[in-house]
Amino acid sequence: MSNTSPALEFKSSTFFAPILILYTNDLTAIEQTLHEKINLAPEFFKDSPLIIDLRELNKQNLDLDFSQVIQLLRRVSFFPVGIRGGNENQNKQARTLFIPIDTVREQGSTLMIGAEAAKQETAPQPAAPAETAPAKEPVRPVPIPPVSAAATLVTQPIRSGQRIYASGDLIILSQVSAGAEIMAEGNIHVYNTLRGRALAGVHGNTAARIFCFDLQAELISIAGDYKTSEDLNKQTYKNPVQIYLQNHALIIKEIA
PANTHER family of this UniProt entry (predicted)? Predict the structure, then answer.
């Protein structure tokens, strides 16, 4: 009897990985800063996949030996899984090291920037304004924000080692244990004790927030900006709080 079950199948999934943005080609400074970051949250960064963003580095025309960076990251227990913003030589080195290249996003950004630059170069210079009363700007409709995906409700405790991901908001009624990780593209609501790691707005949603009844988290993050337990204010520790992003800084505010 022949076996009709398939040998394999592909499924669409969401993959979360931190992005490492390099601003210098000084390997000593990079390694020192990496150790400082890892020491703040060792369990969060341990054996973590990583995407390397070289756009800021290349804006400064700083040369970089990409292979040495990969060796450095692997030495401190990171696993590079992608590169973006690399130049031709860096992309070539990445292919040699079997590191995927985020070509779709790079091409999209390049085309957008090129189009805007072309418009600015070909646009005629505006004439000097006449001394007349300024015209009132037309009233523009207020854009309606897109409707987020349905919220994910979890009623069971999240135990150490478990990872929960929600494509919209994430609502948890039980406690989140130390060593657990909860992630959401939208807001996170924990109506109990939050001890593990909570990451909201993981796709860059800076308007996302984290709410919990009892803040004892190992790490909190919104749109990539994070704080560890060492950074938490003692006044808000073990209290009901809301956490939001303001000027790239996490604000932790107690809920009265």
Answer: SEPTUM SITE-DETERMINING PROTEIN MINC
